[in-house]
């Protein structure tokens, strides 16, 4: 059962390095977050490598790992040692030819509380994720941990209100979004402010519409590892929002940081009592939402 109050953290990092170094770095930062009182700690999407989806290259499949191997072993031991919940996004090799963009939810005793596989897979210039990732097949989940009931969605999932709604309806108190999103450098001046603003606004909207806390952990830094390209400038700006969309903690665009905020379930209940959006849903009229398009 969830505590009425607990502290959550998102960690914003530059992860433009190899797997061994990124693992050591993330372990160190998780320790720092726990020392500051964090009880549920979120890492950025695909923590163990640079953002390899900038190209379609079969050699990048070597970055994937089977379930319960390197990442799970390391963070399971760490979670048990520190007594915290850790959300660990990683590149999963399920079998030859089937790979997922996944996240472990590791409980305070080092056991797996849950596993989430990214449901929505993008395919945009230098975000060629459909080449690498099979869409998730575990659905949207609310995971019970010894600290609280949490939901994990991953990056592109953050644009879909249906994903947030179902996860909240299943009982998630916090929606965690491990993320790898940034600007194409040549587009930043013209489109950057609106792109970043839309990203913030849609997740704040999920918080309001569902009366939940929302936490997003992004990368920072220019990741330019392909010749002849400008790379991706990850915009950071990780944040934690409350159930009215209020910003509880906000990171910079360009610094490695730890954010911590308190989840207050009494506040959440009060917000839902005063803004009873769940009560007034017209579920009898929502059948068309499962259609790809509503043809005239």
Automatic annotation (TrEMBL):
Residues 6-265 form the CN hydrolase domain. It comes from the Bacteria. Gene3D superfamilies: Carbon-nitrogen hydrolase. PROSITE patterns: CN_HYDROLASE. The keyword Cell division does not apply. Keywords: Hydrolase. GO terms for molecular function: N-carbamoylputrescine amidase activity. GO terms for biological process: putrescine biosynthetic process from arginine. InterPro entries: Aliph_Amidase/BUP, C-N_Hydrolase, C-N_Hydrolase_sf. CDD domains: CPA. It holds the Pfam family CN_hydrolase. Transmembrane segments: none annotated. This is Carbon-nitrogen hydrolase.
